[in-house]
């Protein structure tokens, strides 16, 4: 079996596994098995940390964020380890990152209705390129307290990650055609999934009706 076929098969296998693991949505699991309710039927209807915070409080929200963050980080870490073990010329961790986010947003176990992927994406981004994520965090986190609209800050960070990922890889001297460009394209695909999941938030941002941090929905 040649290297190309091995890489393709590894990508397919990692994509399927990442999607299935990503489909374990912490907000839904915690709300159903600990709170005996479905978070998707409460508040904004989103299966994520913010809705958990509004519906069940800080503790439930914290466990939701930690679980989804670790899910993204561990899936990408394991994928990268598999790639290194088989000496692949392509970093399949980027494939894993895309599909673990897709799994979170469209979970096969929960009628394809999940969260918006931010916590899972942060975990994946940390393992993929921690320098890019740290750079974003330094500049973006203070914006939460200025703008006070979490979705807007998250979307800004999502936009910046593929750009900074490109810059870091380029400065590291990675091959432009086989590494920098393909990994950047996949990073943009991650961003596209997150933006699509936030399409309702984007509509509210345009209309000026997106709730700010700390506000409560009526």
Give me the oligomer status: single chain
H/E element sequence: HHHHHHHHHH
**Estimated share of beta-strand residues:** under 5%
Shape: globular
Please characterize this protein's 3D structure:
The protein has helices spanning 3-22, 26-33, 49-56, 58-85, 93-105, 118-128, 130-147, 150-171, 176-197, 199-207. Helix content is 73%, strand content 0%. The longest helix has 28 residues, at 58-85. It has one domain (3-207). It contains ten helices and no strands. It is mostly helical. It starts with a helix and ends in an 11-residue tail after the last helix. Helix 3 runs antiparallel to helix 4, helix 5 runs parallel beside helix 9 and helix 6 runs antiparallel to helix 7 (130-147).
What is this structure, in a nutshell?
With about 220 residues, this protein is mainly alpha-helical. The protein is built from ten helices and no strands. It has one domain (about 5-205).
Provide key terms for this protein.
single chain; mainly alpha; 73% helix
Write the layout of secondary structure elements.
Layout: H1 3-22, H2 26-33, H3 49-56, H4 58-85, H5 93-105, H6 118-128, H7 130-147, H8 150-171, H9 176-197, H10 199-207
């Amino acid at each position: 079996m040649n290297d190309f076929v091995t890489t393709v098969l590894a990508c397919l296998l990692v994509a399927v596994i990442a999607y299935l693991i990503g489909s374990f949505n912490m907000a839904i699991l915690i709300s159903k098995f600990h709170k005996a309710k479905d978070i998707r039927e409460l508040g904004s209807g989103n299966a994520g940390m913010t809705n958990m915070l509004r519906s069940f409080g800080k503790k439930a929200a914290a466990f939701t964020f930690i679980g989804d963050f670790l899910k993204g980080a561990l899936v990408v870490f394991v994928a990268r380890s598999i790639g290194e073990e088989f000496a692949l010329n392509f970093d399949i961790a980027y494939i894993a990152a895309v599909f673990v986010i897709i799994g979170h947003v469209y979970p096969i176990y929960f009628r394809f209705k999940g969260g918006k992927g931010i916590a899972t994406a942060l975990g994946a981004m940390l393992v993929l390129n921690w320098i890019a994520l740290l750079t974003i965090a330094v500049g973006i986190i203070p914006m939460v307290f200025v703008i006070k609209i979490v979705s807007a800050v998250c979307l800004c960070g999502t936009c910046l990650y593929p750009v900074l990922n490109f810059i870091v890889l380029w400065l590291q001297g990675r091959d432009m055609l086989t590494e920098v460009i393909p990994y950047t394209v996949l990073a943009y695909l991650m961003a596209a999934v997150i933006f699509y999941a936030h399409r309702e938030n984007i509509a509210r941002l345009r209309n000026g009706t997106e709730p700010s941090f700390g506000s409560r929905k009526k």
